[in-house]
């Protein structure tokens, strides 16, 4: 069974650098209990709905809609050729109205608005509901829906997720559990990130036998209104929204400079250009990646004069821009 997650008392806490650079997840109980949105959610779903509408300015969002029989699990269809839901562009107040209308249904359709920038869809909300993250230029997003299950996936940025209304259950796995989570296609995904194919509600142990090992390394926590969770970069996380109306706000930021490209592009390019080489050549490239990327240091470039190292020197914005242009030129031949 999954282990409980580390918890600290977050009430009145200003998260410090040590916490926000952690490589382990942590629950911060009561971190945002002072938010007006949280207080409205504790009063009732209707009060939280009314509070959100105060900031609505005719914003269009992407909502994921699924039939009642998917039971909140946004996923692929049976043969992975498509999905069991449909994305629609719709006004946010329409989504809120549908959630309200379906709140008492025994088997409602699944409704989910995910990762939508707060300043775009609810301008002004952040002014009244925010966290001091120091010098981090964090993007704040909002997630709204009914009872939903989001398959285990990873994100490149660090993530501080704050439950504003309803309850959520988080199940987290360290990055080294990749093989035991049975990840689906990398280039065809429900919402941008590759996901685990395991149904956590009823795992198929014959098809996915190593998932039992993943669970031995899992950490799980249930969060209520006002609680927050810090999810480090690259940790796999499965998220369940447990109530008929749920609101979560989160902050994303990267510890690397903005000019750095996403490593996902490097992975895709390596699959295209390295994976299917003959074994001896692939092993040679493995050594090159180790030498120049994963264990880069003085052994990689110390024998070259500093002003002649070019991309072997630490990159800055200008050097990265020039390298990107060079790569694009090569790829477009």
Automatic annotation (TrEMBL):
SUPFAM superfamilies: Clavaminate synthase-like. PROSITE patterns: JMJC. It comes from the Bacteria. Residues 111-268 form the JmjC domain. InterPro entries: Cupin_8, JmjC_dom, RmlC-like_jellyroll. PANTHER family: HYPOXIA-INDUCIBLE FACTOR 1 ALPHA INHIBITOR-RELATED, HYPOXIA-INDUCIBLE FACTOR 1-ALPHA INHIBITOR. This is Cupin-like domain-containing protein. The lineage of its organism: Bacteria, Pseudomonadati, Pseudomonadota, Betaproteobacteria, Burkholderiales.
């Amino acid at each position: 069974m999954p282990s409980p997650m580390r918890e600290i008392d977050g009430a009145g806490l200003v998260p410090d650098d040590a916490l926000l650079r952690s490589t382990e997840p942590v629950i911060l109980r009561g971190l945002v209990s002072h938010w007006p949105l949280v207080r409205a959610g504790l009063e009732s779903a209707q009060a939280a709905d009314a509070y959100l509408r105060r900031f609505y300015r005719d914003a269009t969002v992407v909502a994921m809609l699924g039939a009642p029989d998917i039971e909140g699990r946004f996923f692929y269809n049976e043969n992975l050729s498509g999905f069991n839901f449909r994305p629609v562009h719709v006004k946010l107040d329409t989504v809120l109205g549908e959630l309200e209308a379906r709140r008492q249904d025994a088997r409602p359709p699944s409704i989910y608005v995910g990762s939508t920038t707060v300043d775009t869809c609810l301008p002004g909300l952040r002014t009244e509901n925010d966290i001091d993250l120091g010098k981090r230029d964090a993007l704040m997003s909002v997630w709204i829906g009914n009872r939903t299950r989001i398959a285990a996936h990873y994100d490149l940025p660090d993530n501080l997720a704050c439950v504003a209304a309803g309850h959520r259950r988080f199940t987290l796995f360290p990055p080294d559990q990749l093989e035991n989570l049975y990840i689906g296609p990398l280039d065809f995904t429900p919402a941008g990130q590759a996901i685990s194919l395991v149904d956590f509600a009823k795992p198929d142990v014959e098809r996915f036998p190593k998932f039992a090992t993943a669970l031995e390394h899992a950490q799980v926590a249930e969060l209520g209104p006002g609680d927050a969770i810090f999810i480090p970069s690259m940790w796999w996380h499965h998220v369940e929204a447990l109530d008929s109306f749920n609101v979560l706000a989160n902050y994303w930021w990267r510890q690397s400079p903005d000019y750095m490209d996403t490593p996902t592009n490097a992975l895709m390019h390596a699959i295209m250009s390295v994976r299917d080489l003959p074994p001896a050549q692939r092993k040679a490239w493995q050594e090159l990646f180790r030498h120049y990327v994963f264990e880069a240091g003085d052994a990689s470039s110390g024998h070259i004069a500093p002003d002649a190292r070019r991309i072997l020197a630490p990159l800055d914005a200008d050097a990265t821009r020039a390298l990107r242009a060079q790569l694009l030129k090569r790829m477009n031949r």
